[in-house]
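Re: your question about peroxidase

S., sorry for the slow reply, the queue was backed up all week. Below is exactly what I fed in.
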Amino acid sequence: MARVSPLFHSLLLISSLVLASQIHVSSGKLVPGLSWNYYLLTCPKLERIIRKHLEDVFEKDSGVAPGILRLFFHDCFPNLGGPDFDVPLGRKDGLGPNATAPDNLPAPFFRTDDLLRGFGNRGFDATDVVALSGAHTYGRAHCPSLVNRTIETDPPIDPNFNNNLIATCPNAESPNTVNLDVRTPVKFDNMYYINLLNRQGVFTSDQDIAGSPKTKEIVNQFASDQKLFFKKFSDAFVKVSQLDVITDRIGKGEIRDKCFVANKRRSSMASVVEEVVELAQEI
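Result:
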């Protein structure tokens, strides 16, 4: 069973495999067109190539890891302790940017009902939402996203923690950043939920899930059971990997030669060759 995804998504999804834990998840029904061994015929060493590259990148700059998670969520890390799980392959990159995509992303000032409504419209339940929020166990927040958190008392905030936030981010123009996890900022674990129980969630959207009747029990469960959090995070992450999948071969998606730019138009012969290869992979 492969643990990769096509070019751009390979870098995003394979990053989850560099997490160092014992959890292995690959269950659930796949979106038509995806498979667990998409590159078996065309690039059987892809997983090893990308894993090695990401290990080198993360060793030089561990801050790249949360950025990759964020990229994946919006369109890990060696020795960080997070879950290791398989992801389905075969999704294509779009032929151009989606100008409306940012409008569909959760904002740091969202309340729990906002999150549940937005994610619920895409097939996610409360457990999925709380588990995916746990990705904030690693990474940093920029000051402009924290202004409302330091001036509002709902959801509640630990006074000392609030003073530290204000000292770091005295105004929205400050270029400073804040660790999303104040206890273990460079480790993927369940301390994010411990922070919430101590009213030390950095974003409003984080802290609110610890107080909402719809999600607070899930927060308590994850705070006391890291293995359960890893399992539910893995399940939800795989669900995210199957959102808005482009798999057809006719004009809607492509496997990019360079992940940050759409391919140049290919000749009709190249398109035919690519289609034959994809058909062979599905047999």
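Residues 106-240 form a domain with the Peroxidase; domain 2 fold (CATH 1.10.420.10). Strands lie at 93-94, 140-142, 177-179, 253-254.

Happy to talk it through on Thursday.
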